[in-house]
Amino acid sequence: MATSAAKLLPKEEFILPGTRSCAACGLMLTYRHALKALNPGKTIVAVPASCMTVLHGVYPITPVKVICINNPFGATGAAASGIAAGLKALGHDDYTVLAFAGDGGTYDIGIQALSGALERGANFLYICYDNEGYMNTGTQRSSASPAGAITSTTPILAKLQHKKNMIGIIEAHRIPYIATASPAFPLDLFDKVRTAKSVHGSRYMEVHAPCPPGWGFPNKDLIKMGKLAIDSGIHVLYEIKDGVFKLTSRSLNLAEKGRKKSIAEYVKGQTRFRKINQDQIDYLQHFVDERWSEFVQRHHRTD
Question: What's the CATH number where 185 sits?
């Protein structure tokens, strides 16, 4: 996958000023660049109850220039499947169906509908914006929350379990395109959405979307936190196209130069990790290092 020059980004904005999202929202920045990579006039978006419904606003007033259909929390995969089937029946093969859901609606509540859609090979792009918790309803724990993080449903002890390997579950469905991205690296995100648009069948992307109020860091540090996530290896940028795995962008550079930052540096700027101790940091560091090594080895096997 070639990296785009910034000049390829459309100048037109498809999210107008005045959304109801929080300041410095990682989701909004993700959505902004995803829509630039698509053709919003030929895109239909399906969203569950989430921060996305807050961003879109209340009908008939919305700041987003795209058709959007709200669906029940656990039904995003089913809703997107139905939209894709309807478009096919009508002969509208020039539309992109975009499902856009958070980690709660993907890893947890929506996993059944999503798995069924992927098993059938439904023709849509599913983007999970992963802010590692149920941010829209009070920062509750999800299975995407990292070990050591405090949430409103783990107020005494931090979450003990590591993050679910959702990509591994998605990959088991043998779909043609899977990728990860970050709003801190918008050109990589833009390129991957463009690539996904060109692929027929089920496509899945997972975008690590820092959340200032949920994670507890200043609004001004949104991009800094996104970059720290990549530089520490707790989130890794890669794509899997027709089963071929490749590291991309900053993660590829880190693999070649071997200068990954420590997890301690990543967690210290977030109040959700305020109770983490050294044993928990070591536990998380071991998990990240082991997974990073697997990714690098896999990249070299297909290089």
Answer: 3.40.50.970
Q: Are 14 and 64 in contact (CB under 8 A)?
A: yes
Angstrom CA distances, 38 to 82, 87, 118, 149, 243, stand at 20, 17, 21, 35, 24
Per residue in 216-274, pLDDT tens?
999 999 999 999 999 999 999 999 999 999 999 999 999 999 889 999 999 999 999 99
Cα dihedral sign, 249-251-257-262: positive
Cα–Cα separations (whole angstroms), residue 128 to 110, 112, 202: 11, 15, 14
* Residue-range definition of the domain harbouring residue 167: 10-301
| pLDDT tens digits, 176-192 | 999 999 999 999 999 99
Give a yes or no: residue 5 inside a domain. Answer: no
- Number of independent structural domains in the chain: 1
Q: Which helix (H) or strand (E) holds 255?
A: helix 249-257
Unique residue bearing structure tokens 């896999």: 298
Residue 3: inside a domain, yes or no? no
- Long-range CB pairs of 165-172, under 8 A, 24+ apart, other chains included: 166/103, 166/106, 166/107, 166/128, 166/206, 167/206, 169/111, 169/115, 170/118, 170/204, 171/240
The verdict on residue 1 lying in a domain is: no
Residue 115, SS3?
helix
Residue 49 lies inside a defined structural domain of this protein: yes
